[in-house]
Specification:
Elements (H helix, E strand, L loop, with lengths): L15 H15 L6 E2 L11 H14 L15 H12 L11 E4 L2 H7 L10 E5 L3 H11 L5 E5 L17 E5 L11 H14 L2 E5 L25 E6 L12 E4 L5 E3 L5 E3 H12 L5 H9 L3 H27 L4 E3 L5 E5 L6 H12 L1 E2 L1 E2 L10 E5 L4 H12 L2
Parallel strand pairs: 1-13, 3-4, 3-5, 5-6, 6-7
Antiparallel strand pairs: 2-8, 7-8, 9-10, 11-12, 12-15, 14-15
The structure holds D-malate.
């Protein structure tokens, strides 16, 4: 008889957002007329901006002609997109990242999970608690419940920012602006982690999917703004939230050429080479038309239009934040992030609060416990719905 990867049996039966979708479906069957407002999963609602749509049409037409049709592209992404990313996301901001350090992909969820392919199983791995569940689940798929997985406690007392570990940890996941708590690290705070990683020869897996939502000057948008980070970090970036690509799928991962480690035989090994080997073997690249759409994000019009999109969502974030604060609730995030994190009023059970909010206000959010034990008693709302629905949701909550 064949066997299975039994580590899967140790996972929660379903992925957090699948479990929530199931609950909403059950509720809708019982209350077909309820006007449900979804502030749960971080999925965007605005349509793609005109520059992106134009690029999609143009690229689609190219695929219809013999002379311009494209088959397999480079697994790492087309040069036209990698060059633009390097120039506009990094070099113009004074950060040294070159086009060939960028690997275009179909999503940060995939890459933050797949990166484990090139890392050893013996690594100790630190994750914040609460945390984006993909980091924890993908590690558990490899290790099961294992004491190599270390949770860094984030609570209201430390403003939901992890403390540097006392011991040496090999791999550390950081996500800033953070999902789920919406908190951010300043440059000096992030520098402490880079210094720690350089000292202990640790690797930081830095998820910057929400960098476009940073509004304050002293908050880094890339870990590579910190000196030495190119020797200890990999950064994940996405077009999902800053340009509304959740349905189109495009992201990229920066693996600096300076990032090296020592193999068990004493050889120095480049992670860039390993990731290149992994991607060219297991991945055939992002569709040409999608990469042309991502390129359009970097045109002057694309930059302006996507900035307006982000500002629209941040207006929602302000409305949610002010509404929750006016109830006297303890609120985190929403200033440099599309996520708002707050203490559930009157209960320490975040699923119970989920049910009450759904049943009594017809609003969907995400229970904090879904992100880890420290999330119990907390709740997350997203700013990704429309302005009207966000206003309506907050009116309902204010009158609750
Ligand atoms: C979330 O709601 O946490 C997001 O949808 C995460 C993701 O982009 O996968």
């Amino acid at each position: 008889m064949f066997t299975i990867n039994e580590n899967y049996l140790q996972l929660n039966e379903s992925y957090l957002f699948s479990a929530i979708a199931k609950k909403i479906n059950e509720f809708t069957l019982l209350h077909p007329d309820a006007d449900i407002i979804r502030l749960g999963i971080g999925d965007v609602t605005l349509p793609l901006v005109p520059s992106v749509i134009d690029a999609l049409h143009k690229a689609t037409d190219e695929m219809a002609k013999k002379e311009t049709f494209r088959g397999y592209g480079p697994e790492q992404g087309y040069e036209f997109l990698r060059e633009k990313i390097a120039e506009i996301d990094f070099q113009q901001r004074g950060v040294s990242v070159s086009a060939d350090e960028i690997f275009v992909s179909d999503g940060s969820k995939s890459d933050t999970g797949n990166i484990l392919d090139i890392l050893g199983e013996q690594n100790s791995v630190a994750l914040a608690d609460p945390v984006y569940p993909v980091y924890q689940d993908t590690n558990m798929m490899r290790l099961g419940v294992d004491d190599r997985l270390i949770l860094l406690s984030c609570t209201a007392e430390n403003d939901f920012l992890p403390q540097l570990p006392d011991e040496k940890i090999d791999v550390i996941y950081l996500c800033y602006p953070d999902n789920p708590t919406g908190t951010v690290m300043t440059k000096p705070q992030l520098k402490q982690w880079v210094d720690y990683a350089l000292k202990h020869r640790s690797l930081i897996l830095f998820d910057a999917a929400y960098e476009a939502f940073v509004t304050e000057d002293d908050i880094p948008r890339s870990i590579f703004e910190i000196e030495g980070a190119d020797r200890c970090a990999i950064e994940f970036r996405s077009f999902s939230k800053n340009a509304g690509f959740t349905g189109l799928r495009c992201s990229y991962t920066v693996v600096p050429k300076a990032l090296k480690t020592i193999a068990s035989d004493g050889r120095e090994v480049s992670l860039h080479k390993l990731w290149n080997r992994r991607q060219s073997t297991k991945f055939n690249g992002v569709p040409y038309i999608v990469q042309r759409a991502a390129e359009a994000v970097y045109s002057p019009e694309g930059q302006q239009q996507t900035r307006e999109m982000v500002e629209y969502y941040m207006q929602n974030a302000r409305i949610i934040r002010e509404g929750l604060l006016s109830k006297g609730w303890a609120v985190f995030g929403g200033i440099n992030s599309p996520y708002l994190w707050f203490k559930c009023p009157g209960t320490n059970d975040s699923w119970q609060f989920f049910d009450r909010l759904l049943n009594e206000c017809h609003i969907v959010g995400t229970p904090g416990i879904g992100f880890g034990a420290n999330g119990e008693g907390y709740f997350r709302l997203t700013a990704f719905n429309s302005l009207d629905k966000t206003r309506e949701a907050l009116e309902r909550i204010k009158n609750w």
